């Protein structure tokens, strides 16, 4: 892969399965507690205890639902057809956890 092969695209509803597969296959040896998150932590308004009780399957399904509905937004890096990176680009008002913790104006 070279920098010239990379494409940056908005995360789209059609990419939901590809996105969750990308996260499922990622190496989490540096932070094993992230393996079940699927970038949904801020999309769930619950206590820390409730969050730790959630399963990877629940978060994966929620990620797919949030991507397909447009609630989860971001940019993905693609090397050809293979997803190789992701960055969350969203409005804080779309994060359920922040709604209860932050004053929105």
Structural write-up:
- It is a single chain.
- This protein is α+β, with helices and mostly antiparallel strands.
- The protein has one domain.
- Helix content is 33%, strand content 17%.
- It has a 3-stranded antiparallel beta sheet with strand order 1-2-3, covered by helices on one side.
- Helix 1 runs antiparallel to helix 3.
- The radius of gyration is 15 Å and the shape is globular.
- The chain starts with 5 loop residues before the first strand and ends with a helix.
- The relative contact order is 0.23.
- The model has no long low-confidence stretch (mean pLDDT 90).
Strand and helix layout:
Elements: E1 6-10, H1 16-24, H2 48-53, H3 56-69, E2 74-79, E3 82-88, H4 96-101
Antiparallel strand pairs: 1-2, 2-3
In summary, what is this structure?
With 105 residues, this protein is α+β, with helices and mostly antiparallel strands. It has helices at 16-24, 48-53, 56-69, 96-101, and strands at 6-10, 74-79, 82-88.
List keywords for this structure.
single chain, 17% strand, alpha+beta, 105 residues
Number of helices: 4
Low-confidence stretches: none
Q: Mind telling me the C-alpha Rg? A: 15 Å
The SS-based structural class is: alpha+beta
> Main beta sheet, described?
3 strands, antiparallel
**How many domain regions?**
1
C-alpha termini separation: 43 Å
Number of strands: 3
Beta-strand content bin:
15-25%
Helix content: 25-40%
The order of strands across the largest sheet is 1-2-3
Overall shape: it is: globular
User: H/E order of the elements?
Assistant: EHHHEEH
| Average predicted confidence as pLDDT | 90
């Amino acid at each position: 892969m070279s920098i010239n092969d990379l494409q940056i695209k908005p995360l789209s509803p059609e990419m939901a399965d590809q996105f969750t597969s990308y996260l499922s296959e990622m190496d989490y040896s540096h932070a094993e507690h992230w393996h079940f998150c699927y970038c949904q932590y801020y999309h769930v308004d619950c206590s820390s205890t409730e969050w730790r009780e959630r399963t990877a399957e629940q978060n994966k399904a929620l990620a797919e639902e949030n991507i397909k509905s447009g609630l989860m937004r971001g940019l993905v890096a693609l090397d050809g057809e293979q997803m190789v990176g992701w960055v969350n680009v969203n409005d804080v008002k779309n994060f359920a956890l922040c709604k209860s913790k932050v004053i929105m104006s």
